[in-house]
Amino acid sequence: xxxxxxxxxxxxxxxxxxxAVRGPGLEWSLGELASxxxxxxxxxxxxxxxxxxxxxxALSDRPQWLAVALGAVRLGAVCALASPATSPxxxxxxxxxxxxxxxxxxxxxxxxxxxxxxxAELEAAAVAGLPxxxxxxxxxxxxxxxxxxxxxxxxxxxxxxxxxDIRACLATYGARVLRLRPGDxxxxxxxxxxxxxxxxxxxxxxxxxxxxxxxxxxxSPEALVRAIGLGGVNVVFGVPTWWARLARHxxxxxxxxxxxxxxxxxxxxxxxxxARVWHEVRHAxxxxxxxxxxxxxxxxxYLSxxxxxxRPGTVGWPVAGFTLRIDPGDxxxxxxxxxxxxxxxxxxxxxxxxxxxxxxLSDGWLRTGDLVRREPDGSYSFLGRIGERVKVGxxxxxxxxxxxxxxxxxxxxxxxxxxxxxxxxxxxxGAAVTPRSQxxxxxxxxxxxxxxxxxxxxxxxxxxxxxDDLPALAxxxxxxxxxxxxxxxxxxxxxRRMMEVHR
Length: 503
Description:
Distance between the termini: 52 Å
Radius of gyration: 23 Å
Number of strands: 26
CATH topology of the largest domain: Rossmann fold
Strand order of the largest sheet: 2-1-10-9-11-12-13-14-15
CATH class of the largest domain: Alpha Beta
Helix content: 25-40%
CATH superfamily of the largest domain: ANL, N-terminal domain
Number of helices: 14
Largest sheet: 9 strands, mixed
């Protein structure tokens, strides 16, 4: 079973003309996409790519991305998916560890020993219509693609996935929650190279007979409005910080309040979605977010709301096809603990890191690192990440607790709390917040006062940075490394300026 055959060959009969991918001034039918994938596979083969080789794909989001990635797996090669938006140092490190035979990238350079193929060369092969070599015979457990973990809190790792994993994704979250169908057009805030974006813009629409809108790297609220108008987008995938931003734009009149009137499904994942943000989106845009939780290690989502029946403040119920349990221990007796997941799309391990693999996988169970609580109705609440606690002044602090307090302020739309080393090497607590644009002056000072009441002294942030939008990774998640740098800079300032606004 070859992934490209699953998404293309098996669906072509009678559907060659249906739209498969759109962009500004461009539309490829399923038949045209299949032809381009076949010719691109031929071009990769002529360049020397063989079954079992690794091809690193570091292209910005555009329709050609699908042809390159699916062309590689058609040959039985393994696709290492990386976003060119990743910082140069991290991208270089990740590609070196992937040890690819070949690289297709927008930016120059690459790991030692890897040959480089330009996107223009592969486009020429597709236009020339080189003969399709056909899908290589692969087994469900043969390696197929590598997903780079977000690295929001540390060094990213390559999660190794097999050809059969996507079939499992389609049969679980795809069939049970999304239920995409012909006529649907998807739009994703997460880049194609991320686990979330790979599903949103590639295998879920192709597997459901739908179409994806792919248009570069602009994920602004205005870009979505254009995509809805030009491409007929009616399924939108976002992350909590982005949904909060979209609601803010609508409430301030920067985009029409009815811009999403034709959207039938709006999904949020990637980070904790506060109930307040859910209600703000509902009020400002008229859509009911379908929230969920997943990971690169599981390819996609294993917890989700049900469309039409959300439970704001939770991450929903187990997706049919996955088995979940809470790690045994004292916390489990109270329905709280680390979430463990088992299912057909869970990775086989981390590339070149047996130690990390052993810590993450045990008897088929994936340790997600997510702390959750099972509610009486069977839904799950997200409590934070294992290891997020930081020691400040000799006391342990849970950032999510402080973050929840900051979000109680009506002028704050999102907040991230981190422990950051100051110039003396001491860990200090800091926060970055996005206030409403019409918020009165002095938000940071007010937040300090708010925290001083319900929180212990060591839980009160020493610096609060205000930003219009939180820095984001290619996945759409907040870039904690960039946010930490902003907080560190604020910590360097004299104490009397600690609470001033930084934009």
